[in-house]
């Protein structure tokens, strides 16, 4: 009995230390999520004292009557696909380069990470100015180089607006993944690398059989964070285009906000949020389970 009580004491201490953070998480994350799910089955304009239960009417409305929802879903899928691949490929290349003994690498790390600490709305303002069709940096540079035929209304043309906003997102997000990859690369065992070189492995062999397997936990973290952040893309798109022109850059997260806070249709906005939540869970949870199973099998 004394041994059992001694072993249970650290466990109780752990729960006591965890309790404040758990209470905050339940209060500000779990409860609002449950409340949004509840609201998605209701009709409420944000002012009435009571919300009317309408069942699945909000979901039927966004799937069958909302002309913007499917375009926002398509844009979100494109944005997520690009955001999970291109920025991470660039950041991985930068991490590999800045992990070498090159002069000024500390300063370069700071330069590449600097956009991450700038608020997204400030990034949107900077890039919105650079994309300005009359006074912007890009069109002025094209004029100076005699490339007048390449001048575009970068944020006013439906064909290029989404890609123009994504370039700004790429510029801001590369540094974050780069730091995570750098941390993973610096955790690769130097002994294993040296042993691989002694066995005759070249740079590609060391990368494929030593570096890449050691980076699996980092790759999982980067993938999941990139996926979640891209699915809830809002600030930079809102700051640069507001979903325009003609809803061509509209995203699910921003459409949920527009439905609720601007149109006053909180039930439909909540329904869009729930759809976005389900998409995130369907993609992220199986991937995390698959990665954990692979780690257990490799042990």
Automatic annotation (TrEMBL):
The keyword Transport applies. Gene3D superfamilies: MetI-like. Pfam families: BPD_transp_1. Its main location: membrane. The chain crosses the membrane at residues 15-34, 77-98, 110-130, 160-185, 206-228, 270-292. It is found in: Cell membrane. It is a multi-pass membrane protein. Keywords: Cell membrane, Membrane, Transmembrane, Transmembrane helix, Transport. SUPFAM superfamilies: MetI-like. Residues 73-287 form the ABC transmembrane type-1 domain. The keyword Chloroplast does not apply. Belongs to the binding-protein-dependent transport system permease family. This is ABC transporter permease. It comes from Xaviernesmea rhizosphaerae. The lineage of its organism: Bacteria, Pseudomonadati, Pseudomonadota, Alphaproteobacteria, Hyphomicrobiales.
């Amino acid at each position: 009995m004394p041994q059992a009580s001694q072993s249970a004491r650290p466990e109780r201490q752990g729960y006591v230390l965890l309790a404040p953070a758990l209470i905050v998480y339940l209060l500000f994350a779990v409860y609002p999520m449950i409340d949004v799910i509840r609201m998605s089955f209701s009709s409420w304009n944000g002012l009435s004292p009571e919300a009317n239960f309408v069942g699945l009417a909000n979901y039927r409305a966004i799937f069958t009557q909302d002309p913007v929802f499917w375009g926002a879903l398509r844009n979100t899928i494109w944005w997520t696909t690009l955001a999970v691949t291109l920025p991470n490929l660039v950041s991985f290349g930068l991490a590999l380069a800045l992990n070498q003994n090159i002069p000024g690498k500390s300063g370069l790390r700071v330069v590449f990470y600097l956009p991450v600490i700038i608020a997204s709305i400030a990034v949107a303002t900077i890039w919105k100015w650079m994309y300005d069709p009359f006074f912007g940096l890009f069109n002025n540079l094209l004029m100076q180089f005699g490339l007048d035929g390449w001048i575009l209304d970068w944020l006013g043309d439906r064909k290029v607006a989404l890609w123009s906003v994504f370039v700004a997102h790429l510029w801001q997000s590369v540094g974050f993944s780069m730091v995570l990859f750098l941390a993973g690369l610096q955790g690769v065992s130097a002994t294993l690398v040296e042993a691989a070189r002694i066995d005759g492995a070249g740079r590609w062999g060391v990368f494929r059989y030593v570096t890449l397997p050691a980076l699996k936990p980092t790759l999982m973290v980067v993938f999941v964070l990139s996926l979640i952040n891209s699915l809830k893309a809002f600030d930079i798109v809102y700051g640069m285009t507001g979903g325009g022109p003609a809803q061509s850059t509209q995203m699910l997260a921003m459409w949920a906000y527009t439905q609720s806070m601007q149109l006053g249709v909180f039930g439909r906005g909540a329904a869009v949020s729930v759809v976005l939540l389900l998409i995130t869970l369907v993609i992220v949870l199986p991937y995390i389970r698959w990665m954990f199973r692979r780690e257990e099998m490799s042990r």
